[in-house]
From TrEMBL:
GO terms for molecular function: ATP binding; ligase activity, forming carbon-nitrogen bonds; metal ion binding. Residues 102-298 form the ATP-grasp domain. The keyword ATP-binding applies. It comes from the Bacteria. InterPro entries: ATP-grasp, ATP-grasp_RimK-type, ATP_grasp_subdomain_1. The keyword Oxidoreductase does not apply. This is Alpha-L-glutamate ligase, RimK family.
Length: 311
């Protein structure tokens, strides 16, 4: 079986794991960066290989590659090429915006913290005057490893947030990188908890999870107060809400973060991450995440291939 592994950035550990498992499963896995593709007429090519020659595509990440994502979506529909994740055939990479995710979860009846979305820092300050502190503010476009999540204890913290974002712009200029445009903020009510569950689902089914300690209460909420711990038997209700959230968003490979309200005992979805990193997951749970993802791709692409070949 030939699978195209589409990605934007190279994370050596993840890519190494996928290559190892592909060899073990007898898969011909080709890693493809979007900007190595070519559109010629109605053909999308990687080198001399047309993309329809693969049995299926696994979009490991999309990020800001909006143009290529749309072109690949149109091409896949035309040639009936099966893909993972399904959301790319509907909302596409716009689903990665936290504002859109919050809308879809609420529409599906999945518990999600009270939220509001605003465009600018000035709008953020105005809106927060109506909120109870502390509150959580997230960059709607996200940020890796919690770097886009902020703990706001008082309105003056918004100025500190603004300073952090300006510093990131300056650092990008100094290093010759593309200067980010920070716009779009999701405000969430803070729900007191004792840490969050990270649940991994593949094909909308839970394969395991672990629990992270409560976050350090500082401006950037990117660090837990202790090491995460394995959870041998995840609570059934945690599994249920993780699977429901992944399905309603169309994220077939998901890392879902869930907290329990210490006051009410209710569970809330904090985040549904598409193409999650799984180094810590594999370390804590001893579960072969890369293998599970590729086996799911084989099952999905294989079934689709049989249907195509029978016509």
């Amino acid at each position: 079986m030939k699978i195209a592994y589409l990605h934007r950035l190279t994370f050596d550990e993840s890519e190494k794991r996928f290559r190892e498992e592909a060899v073990a499963l007898g898969i011909e896995l080709t890693t493809i960066k979007y900007r190595k593709l070519r559109l010629v007429g109605d053909k999308i090519l990687f080198g001399n290989t047309e993309m329809k020659d693969f049995d299926g595509w696994y979009f490991r990440s999309v990020g800001s590659e909006l143009e290529w994502s749309k072109l690949l979506q149109l091409y896949a529909k035309k040639h009936k090429i099966p893909v993972v994740d399904e959301y790319l055939m509907t909302e596409g990479p716009l689903r990665r915006y936290k504002s859109i995710m919050s809308w879809q979860l609420l529409e599906a009846g999945v518990k999600y913290p009270k939220s509001a979305y605003v465009e600018s820092v000035s709008d953020l300050k105005k809106e927060l005057n109506n909120w109870k502190f502390p509150a959580i503010v997230k960059l709607s476009q996200g940020g890796r490893h919690g770097m886009g999540t902020f703990w706001i204890r008082e309105i003056e913290d918004v100025e500190k947030l603004e300073h952090v974002l300006e510093s990131r712009k300056e650092k990008a200029k100094e290093t010759g990188k593309k200067v980010p445009i920070f716009r779009g903020f999701l405000i969430q009510e803070y729900i007191k908890n004792d840490g969050d569950y990270r649940v991994m689902t593949v094909g909308y089914k839970c394969i395991g999870g672990f629990k992270r300690q409560v976050k350090e209460e500082k401006l950037i909420l990117n660090k837990s107060q202790g090491n995460s711990v394995a959870v041998a038997d995840l609570p059934a209700e945690v599994i249920e809400i993780a699977e429901k959230a992944a399905r309603c968003l169309g994220v077939e490979v998901a890392g879902t973060d869930i907290i329990r309200d210490l006051a009410t005992g209710e569970l809330y979805i904090v985040e549904v991450n598409e193409a999650p990193q799984f180094k810590v997951f594999e370390k804590r749970t001893k579960i072969n995440a890369a293998g599970a993802i590729l086996e799911f791709c084989m099952e999905k692409f294989g079934k689709t291939q049989k249907i195509k070949n029978s016509k």
